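[Meeting: bench + compute handoff]

Bench side (C.D.) handed over the final construct sequence. Compute side (W.E.) agreed to return the predicted structure before the next meeting so the bench team could plan truncations. Sequence as handed over:
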Amino acid sequence: MAEQNYNTENELVRACLSNDRKAQRLLYDKYASRMYSVCRRYIGDRDAAADVFQDGFVTVFGKLGSYNGEGSLEGWMRKVFVNQALMQLRKNDVLKNADDISEMKMNVPFQDDVLDRLHSADLMNLISSMPTGFRTVFNLRVVEGFSHQEIAQKLGIAEGASRSQLSRARVWLKEHLLNFEKERK
């Protein structure tokens, strides 16, 4: 049997919606590593991230009919996976102790060239090891580009708590980057 070629994302989506198993496998193979990375950025633990990843693909295939072809399929899928991760974090009530304080200023000495010597895998591991509240807000604000107001709505926290978590996340990251640099010397 000749393998079907899907020239556009829309053709691939239509084939998946028609229960074409090869198309579904192709969609999975094409996006799995990127979507797992999204899950790992939000969910620090590998096993828990794998569970969110699996649930995310179940949701993608279940809601694929709602993808209207506007924007990239990858962008639509990314939203599904981010929302899946956020649902898991909310379910575990990880931000229940997020402080609602004004953004604090902490001075941690930092040299920009540290980032030049940092590999992406090292940065990913650092982000994954952040405390959950820091990691969640950091990802939503810095990586996904949401405003603090949007983050507050998504997580059910005060806008000030979002700002506080981001500020603390940045300080945490700077401190750990410095420690990382010291360990490499």
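W.E. noted at the follow-up: Confidence is low (pLDDT under 50) at residues 99-112. C.D. will use this when planning the next construct.
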